[in-house]
Design goal:
Helices cover 36% and strands 24% of the residues. The chain has 605 residues and is α/β, with parallel strands linked by helices. The chain starts with a strand and ends in an 18-residue tail after the last helix. The protein binds fructose -6-phosphate.
């Protein structure tokens, strides 16, 4: 949710480095972008509405040779996406980029208006910039760290700031609260950035800036200060993701690349698990209830977790939407375990839910992809999904790796409860040995996915139907289709449709129906037939090859997928849904990796 990067350079043109960094951060927001350059003793601002490429085109007409620069790619919160609202903002002696939301900006704005300050944009960020400038003007000794710290005492909300002052043009000051920021270190210069992807082309060495810490960054030095403005030593970290992992590597889209990476990611995760089954120090079986808290697809992964925990380990689970959980009455007891799931590890609502769970005394486990992210650092125990960087805004390997970890936790809990029999364990282990090939085979069926996409691409809306675990997969399949193809779809528990929604089925309405649970197969098929009788165009996805002769009675297109043990089946079943969404979005000419209105890492409430 907004990406920021600042660079103070020894020799390279800081403008080029910042623009390259912004391109890698573009998944965080892409409605407008801007850069402030320090050149020949003054600041120049360049902004453009739209993606970084538009800004880049604009900069191609300029001769710029910057020693220091700060840049921003925006996901609008306050004020429409236009050049005026694009960052950097500049007031008086202060130029600033911001990721986050200033909650008390109206209060601060009114105060500043009374003090004669005027504003150009509708953003909360310009207010923060003006407020820092106001404190700066009042300050006698012009100690910048003191100025920023005093201003931040009054600024409420979440922020990561990178700031340049006019009288210190080659220094970037940075601070953060509840929005991520790292400080990158290299021999050629130093960085502030929203995440490591922005700087990996130049360095993998970085410092994690904590809440209320401050950084003073020049081309040959970085100083970090704590809340009391005392200089502190920080651990230098080394990113283990490489710059090539951030490239498409021949794939047309990041989403397709990430879909194709799933067989490898999943098989590696399970193989590591079976090499060290006791890697989790928390004994899940000690807890009477589990709350799984997350947003979006991560929450859908949590729903699979609920199904598996309850069915296999007999542990009751409630799955909660993080933005709701954080404000509801907490019924946490000492025997409640809270599992937070987040690919980015920075989702504001999930982070807040984690903190609330901890405040109420819950033991917390985080399932996270991004190493060193806020959620991973704050949870009692973190299990990494090791899926590698996920760049496409719509999650695929992030989601399946979360589902895989949850399956392993279920096995873990069963083992701890002494209810894991050897036959199930051996079956899972045997299937894991083949999972890579099985998943690759499902992915490698593009003709079929293209056929399905052609059948649905021009429709107004469609339905996903399934029962039990298939219903949770329908929710994820529907979300995927909506977010990248902009088609309206709804996921329904198959038995629920006739309680109202079936009135929307008419001649030709596509219904994507999933039936992989043998115990529910006949019930699901009956529900499908009810839609067929009302004119639905049925796309049927099943692992049941015993009913082939009857498919024609109710299905227009049939996709059979491999049957594996129930603990692994969701990992197989979700793949066609990801690929149907992908092919449909492609046919509809959508911007698959950067769908409109979205951003990858939702660091605001
Ligand atoms: C959908 C999608 C989102 C995320 C959600 C949570 O494709 O990616 O729904 O799953 O925003 O994000 P994380 O997992 O980073 O907390």
């Amino acid at each position: 949710m907004c990406g920021i990067i600042g660079y103070s350079s020894k020799k390279k043109n800081a403008k080029d480095v910042v623009i390259a960094g912004l391109k890698n951060l573009e998944y965080r927001g892409y409605d407008s972008a801007g850069i402030a350059t320090s050149e020949n003793g003054k600041i120049n601002l360049y902004k453009a509405k739209g993606k970084i490429a538009v800004l880049e085109d604009k900069l191609n007409n300029e001769v710029i040779n910057a020693s220091t620069a700060i840049g921003h790619t925006r996901w609008a919160t306050h004020g429409e996406p236009n050049e005026t609202n694009a960052h950097p903002h500049r007031v008086g002696n202060v130029t600033l980029v911001h990721n986050g939301i200033i909650e008390n900006y109206i209060e601060l704005k009114n105060f500043l208006l009374k003090n004669g300050v005027t504003f150009n944009s509708s953003t909360d960020t310009e207010v923060a910039c003006a407020y820092i400038n106001y404190i700066y003007q009042k300050s006698e000794n012009k100690n910048k760290l003191q100025v920023i710290s005093t201003a931040c005492d009054e600024i409420r909300g979440s922020y990561a700031f990178s700031i340049i002052f006019d009288d210190e043009l080659d220094t970037i000051y940075a601070t953060r609260k509840d929005s991520p920021l790292i400080i990158g270190l290299s021999d050629d210069g130093n960085f502030a950035a929203s995440d490591i992807s922005a700087i990996l082309d130049y360095t993998n060495k970085y410092i994690l800036l904590e809440h209320d810490e401050f950084a003073k960054i020049t081309c040959d030095d970085v100083e970090i200060y704590n809340k009391n403005l005392e200089k502190i030593d920080k651990e230098i970290m080394f990113a283990n993701w490489s710059a090539t992992e951030y490239k498409k590597n021949g794939y047309e889209h990041f989403m397709l690349k990430e879909i194709n990476e799933q067989p490898e990611v999943i098989s590696k995760l399970f193989n590591n698990y079976f090499e060290n089954e006791d890697y989790l120090s928390i004994n899940i079986a000690d807890y009477d209830t589990i709350h799984i808290v997350a947003c979006g697809s991560a929450m859908h992964a949590g729903m699979i977790g609920k199904y598996l925990f309850e069915n296999f380990a007999s542990i009751p689970v409630s799955v909660e939407i993080a933005s709701e959980y954080r404000y509801k009455k907490q019924l946490i007891t000492p025997s409640t375990l809270v599992i937070i799931i987040s690919q980015s590890g920075e989702t504001a609502d999930s982070l807040a839910a984690l903190r609330i769970a901890k405040e109420h005394g819950a033991k917390t486990i985080a399932i996270v992809n991004v190493v060193g992210s806020s959620i991973s650092r704050e949870a009692d125990e973190t299990i990494y999904t090791y899926a590698g960087p996920e760049i496409a805004v719509a999650t695929t390997k992030g989601y399946t790796s979360q589902v895989a970890i949850l399956s392993m936790l279920v096995l873990n809990a069963m083992k701890q409860k002494n209810i894991l029999d050897d036959s199930l364990k051996n079956k899972v282990q045997e299937e894991i040995g083949k999972i890579k090939e099985v998943l690759s085979k499902v992915i490698d069926n593009s003709e079929k996915y293209i056929k399905i996409a052609s059948a649905i691409k021009d429709k107004e809306h469609l339905f996903f139907l399934g029962r039990g675990i298939d219903y949770t997969l329908c929710l994820e399949g529907s979300l995927k289709l909506k977010e990248i193809s902009y088609m309206h779809s709804e996921a329904y528990a198959a038995g629920e449709l006739k309680h109202g929604t079936i009135s929307l089925i008419e001649e030709g309405t596509p219904v994507i129906a999933i039936a992989t649970d043998k115990t529910l197969y006949e019930k699901t098929v009956s529900n499908i037939k009810e839609t067929k009788a009302r004119g639905a165009y049925v796309i049927f996805i099943t692992n049941n090859d015993e009913d082939v002769e009857n498919y024609n009675d109710f299905a227009d297109i049939v996709l059979t997928i491999p049957k594996v043990t129930e603990l692994l089946q969701p990992l197989v079943t979700i793949l066609p849904l990801q690929l149907i969404a992908y092919e449909t979005a492609k046919m509809r000419g959508c911007d698959i990796d950067k769908p409109k209105n979205l951003a990858k890492s939702v660091t605001v409430e």
